[in-house]
Queue: 3 jobs
Job 1
Amino acid sequence: MDHARTNLRQRNRRRFRVRKRLNGTAERPRLTVFRSHKHIYAQIVDDTSGRTVASASTADKSLRDQFGFGGNRTAAEAIGKAVAERAQAAGVKQVCFDRGSFRYHGRVAALADAARAAGLEF
C-alpha cells in the first residue's frame, strides 16, 4: 500500500509543478491531457470563467469508430485532431499545453503534434 501511496504523491507533485506555471485565459485557454491505460482525454479549459470550451476522448461514441483501441498513439493522434477541430469551431486558435503529471512523450506528444498539425498554436 505504501508503494501506491508514494506513486500517487509523486504524481501529484509533478502535476502541481506543471500547473503552477499555467493558467488558461479566455484568449489562450489551457489544453489539458489525461491518459489512462485504455483511453486518452483532452479538454480545452478557460480557467477564468471555469468552463470547458471543447473536449474529445477515446470514450466518445462518435470517435470510437476511427481506431480499434483507445490506448495507443493512433488513437491519441485522432483525439488531438478532433479537439483541435472542435476548438476552432468554438473560436479558439491559441492554447497553452498542460501535460499534467505525464511526460511529454509517446501518446501525449502524439496528441500535441496532431493538434498542432490541425491548426492549434501552442
Job 2
Amino acid sequence: MSRTFTLEEATAQLPRLREILMEMRKKKPRVDQLRQEIMAMTRKATGNGHLVSQDVRDRQKEAQELVERLNELGEAIKEIGCELKGVEEGLIDFPSEREGRTVYLCWKLGEDAISHWHELDTGFGGRQPL
C-alpha cells in the first residue's frame, strides 16, 4: 500500500470513481455475453469441422477492445490509490489510518458518502460505521 487517505481525501475521489465504475458496469456484461457467444460459436464450428467464422473474429475483436478499456479503467482506479473490490457491486476500499493502524475506508457505488470502514482482513462483511 503506497498511500493512505483521510476521509476528506477519499471523499474527493468519489465523483471520478462513480464515472469509472458506471462505465465498467456498462461494459462488463457485454464482455461476458461476447465470451459466451464466442465459446458457443467456436464449439459449434469445430464440432462440424468448420473454421472459425468472421462473426467469431468480430466478436473476439469487440471483446478484446472492451477488455482493454476495462483494464484502463482498473488502472485509473489503482492510480488514484484505492482498490477495486468488485465491479458488479461497485465496491472500493481506501487504505486509511485508524487508531494507529491501517484499515480500509469502504464505499459502495450508490452510497452518497463514505460512511464505513473495515479491517484489512475482514472485507465488506466486517464493515463498521465511521
Job 3
Amino acid sequence: MKTLYVTDLDGTLLRSNERTSDFTNQTINKLVDMGMVFSYATARSFKTAHKVTAGMSAEFPVIVYNGTLIVDNLTGEILISHFFDDAEKKKYFMI
C-alpha cells in the first residue's frame, strides 16, 4: 500500500523566508523515491507555489487557488478546474 501525504504550504511546510528548506526538500524527495505519494494544497497560484517549493524534484500534481485547480507540477498543465461560472473563471485568469 502506498502512502499519500498532502500538506499546506504557508505556516506548515514553508519557513519564515517563504521557502522550503534544503532538509525539507531532501526528505520529501527521498520519501517520494521510496514510494510515498506527495502533494500540497495551497491558496497560492501555481506560479508562486512552484517558486517557493523549488528543490523538490518529485513528480506530483498540486492543488492551488484553494482547490480551484489541480495542476501537473512538472508541466504546469491544468488537470482539473472547478469554477462556478465563466465570470468566476475570468476573475482568476483575467480572460
